[in-house]
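Researcher: Quick test of sequence recovery. Tokens follow.
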């Protein structure tokens, strides 16, 4: 109670301090983060400097020690990069919700699995290392299903409560993909991006009543995946397709949901067909259109600017699909099925650069 009174008095003093422009912001405080559309923009520079609204979380380090209880070191800052106090004692606004989630993709599969049977870890230990820097040690001990060579995804979700200053809550989601052994580069599930969702949602934000909103698609799939410990209808793929086709999932009626495009146009959402530095080989939206009962379809592969390379089917020494150098694309014949794997190989060393599994869909033919 005394701390709340202290902050109330401090913000009152900030409010009555003289300011050259009451409708101004200080770029030194928010790095130009807020615009005229934001409530924060209309704080005086003194108020902005004191309250420092916003929340950014940065993962600094992840390790799995001998006791198999994952440790993550992370930093809490405002949008200007200044450290925040988790408990809201030395800086306004406590972090009243913090979630830690760990999933992995079993080798040879493409869907996340909730590790050790939890949606997010609870009961771990949190230690302050320095201003704004904290180390959280999981309570969950990684069990027999832990595979150090598999792609793991660590998700952190935090909420900073500034409601006592009439500024509401601020959230941030961060995702860290890694292979614990370091034997290979991580290959996370990358079917749809948050940026794509935000072309309509602007911004994405779900589950406000459950500690959210969650604002990153990759965080959605930390819980909504086939290993979800309750109704399978709430797995991400089935749920999102049901919602956007105004259908039903888990007994929930989404018939009133409108969608600004034809649900048959997969590339409205599935825009993952762009090569990146870490994933230089891509399929057109990672989807293969299947329009008859054969189960076979055609895929268009695209690759970035590469040295001499080969693309094989199935395995690194499987049938050769294409070879060359530089960037380009190639269309397959009608022989690609759901789960067909294309393997990008460095021609000189023979090392595998990337393995790409494509998905088949009939939605384009509905």
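Model:
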């Amino acid at each position: 109670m005394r701390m709340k009174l202290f902050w109330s008095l401090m913000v009152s003093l900030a409010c009555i301090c003289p300011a050259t422009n009451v409708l101004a912001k200080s770029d030194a405080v928010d790095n130009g983060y807020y615009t005229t559309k934001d409530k924060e923009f209309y704080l005086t520079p003194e108020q902005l400097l004191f309250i420092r609204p916003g929340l950014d979380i940065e993962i600094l380090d992840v390790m799995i020690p001998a006791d198999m209880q994952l440790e993550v070191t992370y930093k809490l800052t405002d949008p200007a990069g200044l450290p925040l106090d988790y408990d809201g004692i030395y800086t306004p606004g406590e972090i009243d919700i913090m979630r830690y989630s760990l999933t992995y993709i079993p080798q040879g599969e493409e869907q996340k699995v909730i590790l050790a049977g939890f949606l997010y870890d609870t009961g771990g230990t949190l230690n302050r290392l320095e201003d704004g820097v904290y180390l959280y040690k999981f309570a969950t001990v990684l069990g027999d299903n832990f595979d150090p060579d598999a792609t793991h995804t660590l998700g952190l979700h935090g909420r900073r409560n500034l409601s006592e200053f009439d500024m509401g809550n601020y959230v941030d989601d961060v995702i860290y993909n890694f292979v614990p052994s370091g034997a290979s580069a991580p290959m996370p599930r990358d079917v749809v991006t948050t940026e794509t969702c935000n072309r309509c949602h602007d911004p994405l934000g779900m589950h406000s009543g459950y500690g959210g909103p969650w604002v990153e698609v990759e965080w959605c799939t930390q819980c909504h995946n086939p290993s979800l410990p309750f109704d399978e209808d709430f797995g991400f793929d089935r749920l999102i397709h049901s919602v956007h086709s105004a259908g039903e999932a888990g007994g929930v009626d989404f018939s009133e949901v409108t969608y600004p495009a034809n649900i048959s146009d997969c590339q409205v959402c599935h825009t993952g067909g762009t090569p990146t530095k870490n994933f230089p080989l891509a399929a057109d939206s990672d989807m293969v259109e299947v329009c008859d009962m054969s189960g076979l379809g055609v895929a268009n592969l695209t690759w970035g600017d590469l040295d001499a390379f080969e693309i094989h089917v199935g395995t690194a020494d499987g049938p050769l699909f294409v070879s060359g150098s530089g960037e380009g694309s190639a269309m397959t014949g009608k022989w690609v099925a759901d789960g067909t794997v294309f393997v990008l190989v460095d021609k000189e060393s023979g090392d595998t650069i990337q393995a790409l599994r494509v998905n088949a869909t009939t939605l384009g033919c509905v």
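The radius of gyration is 24 Å.
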